[in-house]
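Q: Could you fold this chain for me?
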Amino acid sequence: MPFAAVLDASVLYPLPLRDTLLRVAEAELYNPYWSERILDEVLRNLVADGRASEDQARRLTQAMATAFDGAAVPHLAIDRLEAAMTNDPKDRHVLAAAVVSDAQAVVTLNLSDFPVEACDPFTIEPLQPDVFLLDLYGLAGQEVFEAVRQQPRASGTATSRRSNPLARAGDGSARWSSTTPDACTPGRCRAQLSPKLSSSAVTLRSRSSTPKR
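A: Sure. Below is the predicted structure, expressed as structure tokens.
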């Protein structure tokens, strides 16, 4: 069964990171999950920070919901579990979504909101997005590389933005950090990442095969 992860609003807000995570999900390297509340938070922050108009932000979240039609965790199920979560109160709905979706991880930039003692009872691990992507690279390096390589090509021109609903609805052109695809061949990427890959790949295999308690 593919690895499953809940994507917190903090990793869906930045365009380059959001684009990377969704492209890797499109390659079926993991199953992404979120909730209406998570997408609403992304929408509010994009508008509040002037990154997108309300219409642009709404089209983005609608495009995400359409492209990943099984990603939305039912809000009633989240509501039933939220009060039982013991992590940061403002992010208890995120952890509840992970429990409901049987996810192995919450991908977030706010690790302090998901202490280990709150996540361990559900066999859920909070992960920074770079660690999460390195884990996936360790398991399927070529597939991750291809998803990343296509990212600026697919969203960097007006023509491709018209054919790509995620890029078309977004708030600008996508980039993979500061690394351009021309500078990142599979061999060079592997050389840069390889010191971290063996342990992270073993960790992810262990997480994805461990049954929930």
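A (continued): Strands lie at 4-7, 31-33, 105-107, 125-127.
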